[in-house]
Design brief:
Length: 465
């Protein structure tokens, strides 16, 4: 018993030789690049497609349009509204035998710019925001922030905007009260020290010469017109996100960790799609699913609750020349899935929220959560032990470091993932992923060993399940 536990809980760094440590570091260089460049769901989809095309993946939409067929061995992608993506490696066996599915979400907590955001107050120009996802609002002030997003003009033209990431770029951000005058503020409950409606981004302070009213705002509008050819009204049809500015970086003197914005859940997205890329062929079809809106409940057309994945599977079956509704149902029900999302890593600064035997630790590898939810597992997918047993065997066979965990002590809190939506097709699903410190903070931290082990675990899953 004790020996098994030891084996399971071995720190992955101990098993690596120098060459393997180099591999772990190299893999994380690629991840850091991805995380630094992709700070919105759209940027993630774009980059994943770019990397997929390099690996020979073809656009399934075009194949459908041209009424062409697909066959075993084909590599395909389906871009859904630029905010969700499915990758397929078509298997030798009929689709109704089920798929091996890796899923992760690519939306992260942030501050969304409102539809009518721009205003001037005391000769300062500001943007109004509505935060997205669960954030501790006080963490998001006094940081260098960047603006990422798209503006869709009335004629349908799409203007892509990124301000604050290049070396010479300006950054923006939200101010906070000086301690000298914060007596009243500091007495407040942490949830209202900084209030949601006060998360206003300062973007300018220089008046436009010769203008009487709102001259600072007018100057900003002039800049936006010159640089992007957009008008104030165009914010109505824009999706602009304010995110921490700057690149993901090595963390710790030993460079064993990565600090970056949006590990939740781009760390599972990156490890999932790069795992897919390692397979050349497969018995049953492999799928990698990158979805939006998890942080706000997975609803909406691009969230996991949407029918889009089922629709795409139907299209794929149709292209394989073997479509029936019953077979689509079988394809879903006979599937196995790793629903990947980040876990809360044990934090020595806050040990009281965790129960030590059932907690995720840095360096202990891919984390499986049999269940999530809160208050008596409510709202959770609870994975079957038969399925977990198979996964254990696969991970051990491939020497993947893995651990099991739950999100905090009983009744301390909780959370949900995309697992339950896929489980509603009655397929086997388990939550898995990478432990994160400071989850949902502007800058989150992961262990490089866990990132690497997650990818190895996903490859093992795709090969063996
Ligand atoms: Mn997540
Ligand atoms: Mn989250």
């Amino acid at each position: 018993m004790e020996e098994t536990k030891e084996k399971q809980k071995k720190n992955a760094w101990n098993k690596y030789d120098d060459a393997q440590i180099e591999k772990v570091m190299q893999y994380n260089e690629g991840y850091k690049k991805f995380l630094s460049a992709c700070k919105t769901e759209r940027e993630c989809v774009k980059e994943a497609i770019c990397q997929a095309e390099e690996k020979g993946y073809k656009d399934l939409k075009k194949i459908i349009e041209k009424n062409k067929k697909v066959k075993a061995g084909d590599k395909l992608y389906y871009n859904h509204m630029d905010k969700a993506l499915v990758l397929f490696l078509v298997g030798e066996e009929p689709l109704e035998k089920g798929m091996k599915i890796l899923g992760a979400h690519i939306d992260s907590p942030r501050l969304d710019i409102k539809q009518n955001p721009l205003y001037e107050d005391t000769e300062m120009a500001l943007l109004d925001t509505h935060y997205y996802g669960g954030v501790k609002k006080y963490q998001w002030v006094t940081l260098p922030m960047a603006l990422h997003g798209v503006v869709i003009k009335k004629d349908g033209t799409k203007v892509e905007i990124v301000i604050g990431e290049e070396e010479g770029d300006p950054v923006v951000g939200i101010s906070d009260l000086l301690p000298h005058l914060a007596g009243e503020q500091m007495k407040k409950n942490a949830s209202i020290v900084v209030e949601g409606e006060d998360l206003n981004i300062l973007i300018g302070s220089m008046p436009l010469k010769g203008v009487e009213k709102d001259a600072v705002k007018e100057n900003i509008l002039k800049l936006l017109k010159e640089k992007y050819n957009i008008e104030e009204e165009d914010f109505i049809s824009a999706e602009m996100e304010c995110v921490p500015a700057g690149k993901a970086r090595d963390y710790g003197l030993d460079r064993s960790m990565v600090m970056g914005y949006g590990h939740d859940d781009r760390v599972c997205a990156y490890t999932s799609f790069t795992a897919m890329f390692q397979l050349k062929k497969t018995d049953r079809t492999c799928a990698c699913l990158l979805v939006d809106k998890e942080e706000i409940g997975s609803i909406g057309a691009t969230g996991m609750e949407s029918k889009f994945f089922e629709n795409v599977v139907s299209e794929l079956m149709d292209r394989l020349g073997d479509y029936s509704e019953l077979k689509v149902r079988r394809a879903m029900q006979n599937s196995q899935m790793l629903s990947s999302d980040v876990s809360a890593a044990f934090d020595p600064n806050y040990p009281s929220v965790n129960e030590k035997k059932n907690t995720a630790y840095f360096g202990y590898g891919l984390t499986f959560n049999k269940f999530t939810g809160a208050r008596g597992k409510s709202g959770s997918n609870d994975a079957n032990p038969e399925y977990i047993a198979r996964l254990r065997a696969v991970m051990e066979k491939h020497n993947v470091s893995f651990q099991t965990a739950e999100l905090g002590k009983v009744d301390v809190g909780g959370g949900g993932t995309i697992a339950k939506f896929m489980a509603s097709y009655s397929m086997e699903v388990i939550d898995s992923g990478v432990p994160v410190l400071s989850m949902h903070a502007p800058w989150e931290i992961v262990s490089k060993a866990d990132v690497y082990e997650a990818m190895c675990g996903y490859v093992a899953f795709l090969k063996e399940i």
